[in-house]
User: What shape does this take?
Amino acid sequence: YEAKREGVRCRFFSPELTERAREQVVLAGELRHALAEGQLAVHYQPQVELRGGAGVGVEALARWPHPERGWISPASFIPAAEQAGLVDWLGAWVLEQACAQGRAWLDAGRPLGRVAVNVAAPQLHNPELGEQVAAALARTGLPPAYLELEITESLMVSPHAAVVERLEALRRRGVRIAVDDFGTGYSALSYLKDLPIDRLKIDRSFVGGLAEQERMRAITRAIIALGRSLGYEVLAEGIETEREHQILLAEGCRYGQGFRFARPMPPQALSPGP
Ligand code: C2E
Ligand code: MG
Ligand code: MG
Ligand code: MG
Assistant: This one.
C-alpha cells in the first residue's frame, strides 16, 4: 500500500514537471544574463520568389550561442523568456537589430528586401508595441515599408479590439503584417475578415507532407486559394526539396522560404562582398 501511495504521490507532484520547471527558471536566468551581456545573435533566412528564386526579404530569427550548451533553439528559449517576462525585452532587442541590419543592407546598396520580425504574445498585448516599433524605425532609419511583423496564427484567432487597433495603427504607418504558421492555429477563419493582413505563411508541417500525402496537397491548395482570393501574399515555409518547390509552384504559391533556398545565417554571410 505504501509503495502504491508513493506512486500516486509521485504522479501528483510529477518530478519530471518540477525538473522541467526548475530548468526553465535556470534557463531564464541565463537568458537574462545573455541579453544583458549582448550574447544573443540574430540570423536571417532569405524569402524568395518561387519562380526564378529572386530574394524578396529575410526573416530575422533569434539565436543563443550558450557557452556550455551550444546553440539553444528559440523554440525552447522563447517560451522560457515568455514565462520569465523577458520576451518584451528580447523582442525589442531583435526588432532593433533587424531594423539596423535592414538599414545597413540598404546603405550598402544591396537591399535584401523586407525584414520580417517575429512578435510574441506578450508583445502583441503590450500597449507600447506601436511606440516600440516606431522608435526602432526612427533610431535606425529603416523605412517602415521594409518591416514586416510576423504574428502566429493562434494569437490572431480571437483578438481583443485593442490588438486589432494596434495592428491597424502599425499598418497605417506602413509596416506589414504576416500571419505565421498558418493552418495550425485551430483557425476559425473569421478573424481574417477583421484583421489587417498582408501575407499568409503556410506552416511547414503542410509543406513537409506535400510530396507524399495527397491530403496535404489538397489543404495547401485550399490555403493558397483562400489567401490569394483575399488579396494576401502567400508564402510557404520550410521548403526543403525540389519536389516541394515544384508542387507549390504548380499550385500557384508565389513565395517561399526553406533550406532548399537558404538556411538562416549570420548577416555577414548575406552581405555583399567587397
Ligand atoms: P517561425 O517564425 O515559424 O520560423 C521559422 C522556423 O523554421 C525557424 O526555426 C527556421 O530556422 C525554420 N526553418 C526554415 N526553413 C526550414 C526548412 O526548410 N526546414 C526546417 N525543418 N526548418 C526550417 P527557428 O529559428 O528554430 O525558430 C523557431 C521559432 O522560434 C520560430 O518559428 C519563431 O516562432 C520563434 N522565434 C525565433 N526567433 C524569434 C524572435 O526573435 N522572436 C520571437 N517572438 N519568436 C522567435
Ligand atoms: Mg516566423
Ligand atoms: Mg512564429
Ligand atoms: Mg512559421
Summary: The pocket of magnesium ion (ligand 2) is lined by residues 59, 118, 150, 180 (CB under 6 Å). The longest helix spans residues 15-36.
